[in-house]
Design a protein that fits this description.
Elements lengths: L3 H12 L9 H13 L3 E4 L2 H4 L7 E5 L8 E6 L11 E4 L2 E4 L7 H19 L7 E6 L7 H4 L10 E8 L4 E6 L1 E10 L15 H11 L3 E4 L2 E10 L9 E10 L2 H22 L2 E10 L2 E2 L5 H13 L4 E4 L5 H7 L3 E9 L8 E3 H15 L4
Parallel strand pairs: 3-6, 3-7, 7-16, 8-15
Antiparallel strand pairs: 1-2, 2-6, 4-5, 5-17, 8-14, 8-16, 9-12, 9-13, 10-11, 11-12
Helix pairs in contact: 1-4, 4-10, 6-7, 8-10
Bound molecules: zinc ion (ZN).
Length: 370
């Protein structure tokens, strides 16, 4: 039997462990201990060394007791700030924090559900294929654990991630790619009163570039936003530099690239018009997630929900997660809800029933086919 009290206890134990991004060592230790007690194989990879973290991803292998294709289940160990000294409060079915911190249900609810499902299969001797559990580091600060995961450490084709909200059965099938953009406009300083014609204003250059840009809602799948602009020093000097920080997102990688090319072209045109020069730099933080409608893993999720009486719903999501990264690495993925609510706020909460239902769904997905 899936054990509600045990899920609650394990969840509360975990949220009390501090685990901000890059400092998940205590959580990793807890999970290593947990797996070792169950005689599951567990190791920590070297992702932490590659991103200056104090631990790597925790990867558990539970050997097959039945047929079927190997499959992985994943959730992240880190929490967004404020997340130090979390004191969970349980009121009937609802768990929240005391109000000074987040709860950390994002994503320890996912971890709790996955562990409970795996325990359940073991205790009831339910046949299952090779199962891998992947608990990642530094998801919240840019998915560094998933990015630095080596494919050899996760030899499966399918990964079920549980890092989403909504009624249980909600499954994320689309999430945008995102690019961070840094632009530096270089003008030429001159005394603004005596010989302004010798100068090139970096601020005017930026303004000219910006007025050429298509921004905000670009199309159904694509957005772009200027987040911050800074430039110049005092009024009697023609501004030498101006910097602009922006982002662009799209559910389609090609459309994102098109928007980036457009923004760069606007900067180049402005430099031709005003003078000066522009450094336009961007990094794609993560690729788009697009789970095809005929994905066998998606179909399996649907079927498992159906068997359990959960309402399967495939939905898009506005933000990226480990699912984007793992999808970009070639894994077939889905990101299933664990019921987390008001995440990234001090009002974050989760329902025990939702965690229990997530564990039921995960257990159903872990089983060998009949
Ligand atoms: Zn999360």
């Amino acid at each position: 039997m899936l054990n509600k009290d045990r899920i609650l206890k394990n969840f509360l134990d975990m949220v009390r462990i501090d685990s901000p991004s890059f400092k998940e060592a205590a959580m990793a230790e807890y999970l290593k201990e947990f797996a070792t007690q169950q005689r599951w194989l567990v190791r920590v990879d070297n992702a932490g060394k590659l991103c200056d973290g104090d631990t790597g991803n925790v990867i558990v292998r539970i050997q097959a007791t039945g047929g079927g294709e190997p499959i992985a289940f994943s959730a992240h160990m880190d929490c967004v700030p404020p997340c130090l000294g979390i004191k969970p409060v349980v009121e009937d079915d609802k768990i929240s924090s005391e109000g000074e911190t987040v709860l950390g249900g994002d994503d320890k609810a996912g971890i709790a559900a996955i562990l409970e499902a795996a325990l359940h299969l073991k205790e009831e001797n339910i046949p299952h294929p090779d199962i891998y559990l992947l608990f990642t580091i530094a998801e919240e600060s840019g998915m560094h654990g998933a990015k630095n995961l080596s494919a050899a450490d996760l030899p499966v084709k399918k990964v079920v991630i549980s890092d989403a909200g909504g009624p249980i059965g909600t499954t994320i099938v689309k999430a945008p790619a995102k690019a961070g953009i840094d632009v530096t406009f270089h003008g030429k300083p001159a005394h603004a009163g005596m010989e302004p014609e010798k100068g090139v204003s970096a601020i005017q250059l930026a303004a000219d570039a910006i007025r050429r840009m298509s921004l905000l809602r670009i199309d159904e799948e694509t957005t772009a936003n200027l987040g911050k602009i800074e430039g110049g020093t005092v009024t009697n000097i023609v501004a030498e530099t101006c910097t602009l920080t922006a982002e662009a997102r799209s559910l389609d990688d090609a459309k994102l690239q098109k928007q980036l090319d457009h923004m760069k072209q606007c900067c180049d045109e402005a430099a031709q018009n005003i003078g000066g020069s522009v450094d336009f730099e961007y990094t794609i933080s993560y690729p788009a997630l697009t789970v095809p409608a005929d994905s066998p893993l998606l179909q399996k999720t649907d079927e498992c929900c159906e068997r359990l009486g959960l309402k399967f719903e495939a939905v898009p999501c506005g933000g990226g997660s480990d699912a984007n990264i793992l999808f970009g690495k070639g894994y077939s993925v889905v990101n299933i809800s664990n019921g987390m609510e008001a995440v990234h706020t001090t009002k974050e909460s989760i329902s025990l029933q939702d965690m229990y239902d997530t564990a039921r769904l995960v257990a159903e997905m872990m089983k060998s086919p009949e």
